[in-house]
Amino acid sequence: MKLLLCARCMSTVTLVTRERRCVCGRTWGRRRWKYRHPIIYGGPCVVLGIEDKDLARAIRTAASTERTQRFVAVVIGHRASTLIRTRRPTCKTETKRKRRGEHS
């Protein structure tokens, strides 16, 4: 699971295949379908990674023991090879130009 933490409003958004934004709207991104790599379109943010198995185990244990459980989350480096930072096209025309290989 990948989470996007906005450095401005400190809200956290789970990255899914459709675009998600933080509360203030300055940070947004999504996860590519079939891939684990997140795509970050903009904003001051930190990407967090959590192993689904670790989180599920912590939830199961907390539910059965009624005690607080810890799990590991990692901060994915700003220049990590698994992180794609890009500028999203601002309009349909710009998207069509990029597909045809034209530059504005």
Task: Describe what is shown at a glance.
The chain is 22% helix and 30% strand.
What string, H for helix and E for strand, traces the elements in order? EEEEEEHEEH
Neighbour order of strands in the largest sheet: 2-1-6-7
Terminal CA distance: 37 Å
The average pLDDT is 77
Number of strands: 8
Instruction: Quickly give the structural class.
Output: alpha+beta
Gross geometry: globular
Q: Uncertain regions: pLDDT < 50 for 5+ in a row?
A: 89-97
Radius of gyration: 17 Å
Largest sheet features:
4 strands, antiparallel
**How many DSSP helices?**
2
Beta-strand fraction estimate? 25-35%
Helix content: 10-25%
Describe what you observe in this structure.
- With 104 residues, this protein is of the alpha+beta class.
- Helices cover 22% and strands 30% of the residues.
- The strands form 2 sheets. It has a 4-stranded antiparallel β-sheet with strand order 2-1-6-7.
- Strand 1 and strand 2 (12-14) form a beta hairpin.
- The longest helix has 14 residues, at 52-65.
- It is globular and about 45 Å long.
- Residues 89-97 have low confidence and may be disordered.
